[in-house]
Each structure stands twice: as C-alpha cells, then as structure tokens.
Amino acid sequence: MHSSPFRALGHYRVLPQLTGWKTLVIAFAARAPYAMLPLGVMTAVTASTGSVAQGGAATASTAISTAIAGPLIGKWADRKGQFLPLRILTPINALALLLLFLAVQTATAGLPLFLACMAVGFTSLPIGSFTRSRWIHQTNTPRELGAALSYESMADELVFVLGPALVGIAATAAFESAPLFLAFLLVATAGIAFALLAPKTKPVAQAADKQGPGVGRVIVAVTPAIIAMTGIGMLFGTTQAATTVRAELLGHQGIAGLVYAAMGVGSALMAILTVAIPERINLPTRLLIGGLGIAAAMSLVALAGDLLSTAFLLTLAGLFIGPAMVTAFTLAESLAPRGGIAIAMTSMQSSVVIGVSIGSSLGGIIAQNFHDKPTFLASAGAGILVALVGFILNIRQLSKRG
C-alpha cells in the first residue's frame, strides 16, 4: 500500500514543508532569465547587426561559455557550498547582462559583442542544478527525492515554454533587445533573492579527499546520464528547427513557437507524474521506454501534414520526454561519487545546452536542404540515442547479476 502510485503523489505535499513556498517561487523565477537567453540573444543581436550569422554566432558564444562554466561552478559549490559562488557570480551576471544589452543598443559588433556574450555565459548560474543539489540534502526518503526531482523537471519544462514566450512578448511589445533587459531585471531581483537563500553550510567532503572528487572523475562516473541528457537536448534543437520550417512551409511562421511549446506542456505534465512510476521499474528500463516512446512519437510527427496534428503529436512526445529527463537526473545522482553532486547536476545542465546547440545546427542544415519531415526523423534519432543508453545499462546490470 505504501508503494501505491497515488500514495506516491502525496509526497509533493512535503516539498513546501521542507523548503517553504517562498523559496519554491523564487527558485522558479530565478531560472527564467536563462531560458530566455538563447532566443533573446539571437533576436536582439540579429536586429542590432542586421546579420543572422552574427546572431547565431553570438548565441553560440553564450551557450558554449555556459556549458563550459557549469561544471566548474558546480565544483566550486561542492567544495565551498552554494553561498559563496551565488553571492559572487549573481551580481556579476546581472552586470554582464546589462553590458550586453547596452552593447546591442549601441549596435556593437565583432569581438566586443562576443566578449559580452561570453561574460554572460561564463557567469550564468545553473539554478535548476543548484536546486536539485539542495533537494538531495533536504529530502529524507527516496520517494521524497523522486518527487523533488520530478517537480524540478516540471519547473524546467514550464520555464522552457515560458522563456521563449517572454522573449516574444517583450520584443513585440517594446523593442528587439527588451528581452535582454528583462533578463537583467530578473537576475537582479529573483536571482539575488535565490543567492541570499543559499545555505551557508559547506558540503561534507569525502574523508579521503577533503577537496572532493575532481570534475573529470565526476563526469566519467555520470557519463551514461550525460549522454542521455545530451540526446534530449539534441531532440529539443532538431524539433525546434523542424517545427519552424514546417510552420513556414504551411504559411503560419508566427505560431511556430506555440506549436513547439506543446511538447513542453506534455513533458511538464508527465514530469510531475513520474514519481508515481512503480519502483520495480528500474532507471535503465525507464530510459529505454522513454527513448523508444520519443522515437515513435517523433516518427509520427514527421508524417503529420498540418500544425494542429503536429501540436497534438508533439504533446504525445512530451509525455515520454518528461519521465526521461527526470530519470536522467536521478541516474546522475545515483552514479555521482560522494561530494560531487553539484558537479553532476551542473554537468547535466551543460549537457542539455550542448545537445541543443548540436541539434539546432544539425536540424538547421537538414531543414534547409530537406525540409521538415527528415528533420523530425532526426528528432526521432535523438530518442533512439536515449533508448540506447537505457538498453546498454540494462545489459550491464544483467551481466553483473550473471
């Protein structure tokens, strides 16, 4: 009776008791500016310079810098706790965003612009990873931790949907670079509030290594989870390109973002319900099922002929994406060596960024040359990658038992 799925859903009631409603709201708002950055930088720089190539390069500079900095910030947090990194980096990141906004406003291009983008990327805070790391220390049972990680994936998915929407609203209602100024305001308010709530206590280091495990050691340990999360990021990137070109071909380019957002809605819904999955279904099997479900759903999307059916089938795909994301984070937590949780969580976030960059580039090339259907099939291929990780881990577990 204790393991009943409906009983498991009751663990969500514990989360506000563990951390407080105010903290939940602040943590949700603090991650919003980073969901706005990719599209926000692309929109602002393209409008400022008149060059899509400059916009793409600026976006890539920001994304790559963010991906590189993530595990290093995680290492810092594992060694010193979150209090110091957040107190130092949050105001610097706010200032970097303001400088990028001013650079765009003055039509700055070339090296100064890219340096501003890199400054934003290198100081971007992995809010979702930090909150997951906090939950690992705050929860008392595996079910509570599962509920917390499911909630975090749901929050990420909602921000993933709302971030680009905020960019579109701000750019349309005000001016093209307004999303960057809005991101600055959010970091300066919600981001600093999140930093002030950081625990002042340092994490417990390993007895044999007071500095905790190195970045390389942690990344090697959680490599299966990183590969799975990179695959999910590639799925996002290729699907965005495919949805955009399909909307253009059908003469409705303006609603491409809304159609794409349907995938995030389905993903957020199932992420919050992942805690109800019976414990007897192990993590590798969940990845295998999630990846195969993504591949099957995206193959159906490739066959769709209109945007309404595309949105419906993307929602169906999202039902498998949410559990796959939660499972990947849970897998990373289980594989990470003691004292390396923050590195593991930030590495996962960097994996998404890298995956989206790869998927966007690959998807853009396929879409430009072969249009929408083959690009959606590339998204299905990303699902196969996720399933393959689950399959290999299952084989490894069976071989150990044998």
What can you see in these coordinates?
This protein is 82% helix and 0% strand. The protein has 402 residues and is mainly alpha-helical. The chain has two domains: 1-202, MFS general substrate transporter like domains (Growth Hormone, Chain: A), CATH 1.20.1250.20; 211-397, MFS general substrate transporter like domains (Growth Hormone, Chain: A), CATH 1.20.1250. Helix 4 (32-49) runs antiparallel to helix 5. The longest helix has 32 residues, at 142-173. The two termini are 32 Å apart.
Largest β-sheet summary = none
Instruction: Give the termini distance in whole angstroms.
Output: 32 Å
Q: Helix count?
A: 17
The amount of helix comes to over 70%
Q: Can you write the helix and strand succession as a string?
A: HHHHHHHHHHHHHHHHH
| CATH topology-level fold name of the largest domain | Growth Hormone, Chain: A
Strand content: under 5%
How many domains? The number is: 2
The best one-word shape is: globular
Instruction: Outline the low-pLDDT stretches.
Output: 205-209
Architecture of the largest domain in CATH? Answer: Up-down Bundle
